Structure to design on (476 residues):
């Protein structure tokens, strides 16, 4: 695809050779010519064009492209700034909180399914977090124990897990503990 | 006569394109659409990659900030050699690189939202890191849209290349090509699995084969006409060897970017991983010297 800019009627090509004068000639022609403006393209002096083309376009962009540039700049700077500021912020170590969803315990295929939400309240993501659910009898003896490993628990992230038990657990007999995890 | 950086064309500016007149703003929208398509074309595999989502949750803030800054300069290089605008006169590398990153942001955010990786259950901090990390390959795709999807100008697009020192051009081409074509492999764990399974004979074989393929691609396959200007790296063996070193450096950088190596990683692990990844970056770097 090739593009060429056309000259405005009445303008000399010599004037158009200098892009600095283009702005003036465009301003002048806008007062004289009809609604459409036409600018010329300089095909000469490729060395200057190479150097200028790092920031300069011919013809210069319209508000459409400038809008895209400004929105891009704003978005990247805001997000990057947020990341940089978060890098300065004090970080709390991983704090794994667990919550047994007692009202959602149910029977499936003859087993008791106990859902548990596991949340990393800290500012550091962890991987391979081992969570153990234990069911104790009245005298404190652990009668059933199941474990799960959560591959990745991001900062502030929550993972929902389900433990399958062979016996119906009493709410006050259930305990969930964090065994270990790997820091980044 | 002076020119200013912030020049603005009126909305009713008309240019000729493909032997018909078009408003410039419409061509600019086409450029943005082309960049968007290029962004998705390169980044979609990574947007669907679990390791990328995991890395976003684990990457330290400073590492991510550094990666974004480096990505901007890589995009300047990509746009200089390629870009998403067919006509060289309308390229402005420093600005177009910024626009490419904006396009990458939008492409990443929209896709991640559609595949439910951005949702109310994901903390805001994680979402921002995920979008920024995925923006990197997406912006590369936008910057290389023309190379990926066509629409080259019938005018020469090689005016920039002729102004570069031939050795610098080879280094830049190798680096950018290695980054661009190896980015899809870099986040995956398979490189480590492969590296851990290799004997030293495998590693030596990989090194030799990488060098052979690189030389084959660039000097014997005859894909494109070579730049015949002489430089320090003119001897074929020297160019191949130097390009391999550059490719290994890119390999190490990519592995660091995705958290697989750092200064504390044992050498006996690092070397096989870098050489394994280096196979991909070497072939990609050779392609970069041809394409870019």
């Amino acid at each position: 695809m090739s593009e060429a800019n056309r000259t405005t009627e009445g303008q000399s090509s010599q004037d158009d050779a200098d892009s600095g004068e283009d702005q003036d000639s465009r301003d002048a022609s806008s007062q004289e010519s009809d609604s459409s403006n036409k600018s010329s393209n300089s095909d000469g002096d490729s060395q200057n064009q190479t150097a200028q083309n790092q920031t300069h376009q011919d013809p210069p962009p319209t508000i459409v492209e400038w809008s895209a540039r400004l929105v891009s700049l704003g978005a990247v700077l805001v997000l990057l700034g947020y990341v940089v500021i978060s890098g300065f912020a004090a970080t709390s170590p991983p704090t794994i909180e667990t919550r047994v969803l007692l009202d959602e315990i149910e029977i499936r295929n003859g087993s008791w399914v106990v859902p548990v939400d596991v949340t990393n309240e800290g500012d550091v993501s962890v991987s391979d977090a081992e969570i153990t659910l234990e069911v104790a009898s009245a005298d404190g003896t652990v009668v059933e124990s199941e474990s799960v490993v959560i591959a990745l628990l991001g900062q502030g992230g929550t993972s929902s897990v389900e433990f399958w038990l062979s016996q119906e657990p009493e709410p006050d007999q259930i305990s969930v503990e964090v065994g270990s995890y790997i820091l980044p | 006569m002076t020119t200013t950086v912030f020049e603005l064309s009126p909305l009713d500016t008309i240019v000729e394109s493909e032997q018909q007149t078009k408003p410039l703003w419409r061509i600019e929208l086409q450029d943005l659409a082309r960049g968007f398509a290029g962004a998705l074309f390169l980044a979609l595999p990574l947007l669907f990659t679990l390791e990328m989502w995991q890395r976003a949750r684990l990457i330290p803030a400073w590492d991510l900030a550094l990666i974004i800054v480096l990505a901007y300069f890589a995009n300047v290089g990509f746009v200089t050699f390629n870009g998403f605008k067919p006509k060289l006169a309308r390229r402005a590398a420093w600005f177009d690189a910024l626009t490419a990153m904006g396009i990458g942001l939008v492409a990443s955010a929209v896709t991640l939202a559609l595949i439910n990786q951005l949702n109310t259950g994901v903390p805001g901090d994680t979402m921002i890191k995920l979008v920024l990390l995925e923006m990197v390959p997406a912006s590369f795709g936008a910057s290389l849209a023309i190379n990926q999807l066509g629409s080259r100008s019938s005018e020469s697009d090689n005016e920039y290349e002729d102004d570069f020192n031939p050795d610098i051009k080879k280094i830049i081409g190798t680096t950018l090509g290695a980054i661009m074509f190896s980015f899809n492999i870099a986040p995956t764990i398979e490189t480590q699995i492969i590296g851990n399974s290799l004997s030293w004979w495998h590693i030596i074989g990989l090194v030799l084969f990488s060098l052979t393929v690189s030389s084959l691609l660039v000097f014997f396959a005859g894909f494109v006409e070579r730049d015949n200007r002489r430089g320090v790296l003119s001897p074929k063996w020297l160019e191949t060897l130097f390009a391999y070193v550059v490719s290994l450096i890119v390999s190490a950088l990519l592995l660091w970017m995705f958290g697989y190596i750092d200064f504390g990683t044992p050498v006996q692990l690092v070397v096989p991983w870098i050489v394994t990844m280096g196979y991909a970056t070497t072939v990609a770097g050779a392609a970069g010297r041809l394409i870019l």
User: Anything to note?
Assistant: Confidence is low (pLDDT under 50) at residues 1-22, 25-47 of chain A.
